[in-house]
Amino acid sequence: MSKKYLILGAGPAGLTVACSLLKKGIKDITVLERAEEAGGLCRSVDADGRPLDIGGGHFLDVRRPAVDEFLFEYMPMDEWDRYERDSRIVVNDNVIGSPIEANIWQMKLEDQVEYLKAIAVAGCNLGTKMPEKFTDWIFWKLGSKVAEDYMIPYNQKMFGENLDLLGTYWLEKLPNVSFEETLLSCLTKKPYGTQPGHAEFFYPKKYGYGEVWLRMAQSLGDRIKYNEPAVSIDLDKKIVNDKYEADVIISTVPWKSFKSIKGLSEEAMKGIDTLLSSSVVIEYFPEMLDTKAQWIYYPDSELSYHRILVRHNFCPDSKGYWTETNLTRFEEKNNGKHFADSDKSGKASYINDYAYPLNTIGKPETMKKLLEEAASKNVIGLGRWGEHQHYNSDLVVELAMKLAQRLD
Ligand SMILES: Cc1cc2nc3c(=O)[nH]c(=O)nc-3n(C[C@H](O)[C@H](O)[C@H](O)COP(=O)(O)OP(=O)(O)OC[C@H]3O[C@@H](n4cnc5c(N)ncnc54)[C@H](O)[C@@H]3O)c2cc1C
């Protein structure tokens, strides 16, 4: 007889593992979701007649064919458009491509000289040891100009003020461009080095990014219990909210979102207390922008938002754009007040309390201990929050598919 599965959270991770188990013939699956619909950070709503992705700009990277194939089973490929990435950075009156270190050649000539001089004497080019703090690493890898004009203010705007808490173990996510490649790009006027993610991506033709997850949720029927937050978990008894029992629990929700956890050691519980995250607010504006970019990064600390998503450049027949702003900065701007989800002027705003898991120093050890201990009790942490990892949705789907393959 197959086991009884309880899945916490109906975002991409929870939905993928649930759908994959179902495809294997495992039917005894219950999913608890705190919201009234599925999709998590990848949800969309209608704003001003077209979709708005309420968790921020969301695109499906083409790099994982098995993931695309899986998602196309729920929303066929001909319902998606394929785009080449066009993203920009506005820095010191220069509007250049991303990543900055591969596109310095697009700056004013006098700026190119200053940036190159700073990169030439960055620690990594002088052979000094790689530092352990993220902020120190930025200076070490990219030099003082890129650090002070872009990386430090941008990351502060996105993650919050205290960047000193962040480590460097996650930086393989960032593009890697050497000084030689930056120099070569300035001499030949084209980018060199590894490019960032989403170089090519899919976005739905008629819908927002949320549609595919809604269709997956539909295939699960009443196995998903909406408006049902998991508030307590007992790992020994494998019971959630004193009501839902299972043989295996797969948790994709933030560990800090439980009000009560039983069955973990004191060390693991203390580890949970150290996990940090930041929140993001999405605001929609109906104006058209004069740019071909799909999104633009703004390190300028005078502006509260850090990124703009130009909806009319990736969502057919739409207008307007939306901004992404760290919740703390947003509250400062509005004196602590939020405006309603949607107001009469056509603007709209949405708050995502759990947006970015922060890669603090010591987090890998904390999560390893926590996940191993939980797994020994058949409680498996999965996805952006279950693993507290800065994962994109394509990776989350891949990991969830692989997990389901191992389960019986
Ligand atoms: C601004 C921004 C931009 C991004 N851009 C991209 C992009 O372009 N491409 C991309 O692939 N990825 C992108 N991502 C990442 C993407 O959002 C995540 O990879 C994906 O949503 C992770 O899925 P998940 O299921 O692990 O988590 P989530 O999507 O967060 O889903 C978790 C689910 O659990 C529910 N939940 C939370 N607490 C509880 C509880 N206690 N009980 C029950 N349910 C609960 C939530 O409501 C949610 O439905 C972006 C993220 C952000 C913040």
How does this model look, in words?
With 408 residues, the chain is of the alpha/beta class. The chain has 12 helices and 21 strands. Among the domains are: 5-43 and 210-272 and 360-406, FAD/NAD(P)-binding domain, CATH 3.50.50.60; 87-188, no CATH class. The protein has a 7-stranded mixed sheet. Strands 10-2-1-14-21 form a 5-stranded parallel sheet. It has a 4-stranded mixed sheet with strand order 13-12-11-15, with no helix packed on it. A hairpin with a 2-residue loop joins β3 and β4 (50-53). α1 (12-23) packs across α7 (211-220) and α3 (109-120) packs antiparallel against α6. It is globular, with a radius of gyration of 22 Å.
Question: Key features?
Answer:
single chain, 408 residues, alpha/beta, FAD/NAD(P)-binding domain, 7-stranded mixed beta sheet, 5-stranded parallel beta sheet, 21 strands, 32% helix, 21% strand, binds flavin-adenine dinucleotide
Strand coverage percent: 15-25%
CATH architecture label of the domain at 5-43 and 210-272 and 360-406? 3-Layer(bba) Sandwich
Please tally the β strands and state the result: 21
**End-to-end distance, in Å?**
10 Å
Helix-and-strand structural type: alpha/beta
* Spans of at least 5 consecutive residues with low confidence: none
Assigned CATH class of the domain at 5-43 and 210-272 and 360-406: Alpha Beta
Tally of DSSP helical segments: 12
CATH topology of the domain at 5-43 and 210-272 and 360-406: FAD/NAD(P)-binding domain
* Average pLDDT for all residues: 94
Portion of residues within helices: 25-40%
CATH superfamily of the domain at 5-43 and 210-272 and 360-406: FAD/NAD(P)-binding domain
Rg is 22 Å
The hetero molecules present are:
flavin-adenine dinucleotide
Strand order of the largest sheet: 8-7-17-18-19-16-20
Q: Biggest β-sheet, characterized?
A: 7 strands, mixed
Overall geometry comes to globular
